[in-house]
Design brief:
mainly alpha, three-stranded antiparallel β-sheet, two-stranded antiparallel sheet, 62% helix, 6% strand, elongated
């Protein structure tokens, strides 16, 4: 099998039904039955190719020296690596799996012998390429680690800091505007600031904040003021409370 010449179709290495049957120690009929009984598990272009007409004629002309296609064949199935694997699974015999392992190693993924550098220039190029490849891997790994760190949940210390900042900003606003508010009115201010935090970070609840959100929330709180709608609701709550007082 090591000397088996590779045949490609549509940039994929393929095998015919006859080859599969021979390698797996079964018959072409068994291969065809497996396919017909499990047709929904095969995808054309991924597991197999079905050639006929012009496509088959072109393929025959290209591989006629390999004796892969009968001259009178009017249709042909070609199996990809994934298709061959699926047939091995369906046959379920030790021989099929052993042969598939050999096919995978020596036919679908043959190991090519690496040519050693022949000159100082080639050696230098190889060293530079190796250095660049290593640097690229390090950069990708660093980026991945940074991304994982930034998307990690915010730690308790940072969460508590932001919670205290929110309370402080609400209290500073009340003090600066000399407001006397009920607990219901204060709740509207907290609702306003928390809604803003969710909007600028894209989270549904404050507990979902990530490390990368910390600076965003911190900047937001520095400039926070309640919306006009929130102020009107607070005013309405105050008017309702006064109206209820008059009733008594």
């Amino acid at each position: 099998m090591n000397k088996l010449k590779q045949v490609e179709y549509d940039n994929q290495i393929i095998l015919t039904t006859e080859q599969l049957a021979t390698f797996y120690g079964t018959t072409e009929r068994a291969i065809k039955q497996n396919f017909n009984n499990n047709y929904d598990k095969f995808q054309e272009g991924l597991h197999y190719y079905f050639l006929k007409g012009v496509q088959l004629k072109e393929f025959k002309n290209r591989v006629e020296n390999f004796d892969l296609v009968g001259k009178r064949a009017n249709a042909l199935y070609l199996w990809t690596k994934r298709g061959a694997s699926r047939h091995a699974k369906m046959l379920g015999t030790d021989r099929a799996w052993d042969v598939y392992d050999e096919l995978e190693e020596n036919y679908f993924n043959p190991k090519t012998q690496q040519r050693l550098p022949q000159s100082p220039t080639e050696m230098l190029k190889l060293a530079i390429d190796s250095t660049l490849e290593t640097a690229d891997k390090v950069e990708k790994l660093t980026t991945r680690m940074d991304d994982l760190e930034q998307n990690a949940s915010i730690d308790p210390g940072e969460y508590n800091y932001l919670s205290k900042r929110i309370s402080l900003e609400v209290q500073n606003y009340i003090t600066a505007h000399h407001l006397i508010l009920s607990s219901k009115q204060r709740a509207q201010l907290y609702k306003d600031v928390n809604r803003g935090v969710k909007e600028v970070t894209g989270v549904k609840t404050r507990s979902q904040l990530r490390k990368k959100d910390f600076d965003t929330v911190d900047r937001y709180l520095m400039d926070w003021v309640p919306s006009r709608a929130t102020l009107m609701i607070i005013e309405q709550i105050g008017d309702e409370a006064k109206g209820q007082e008059r009733l008594f």
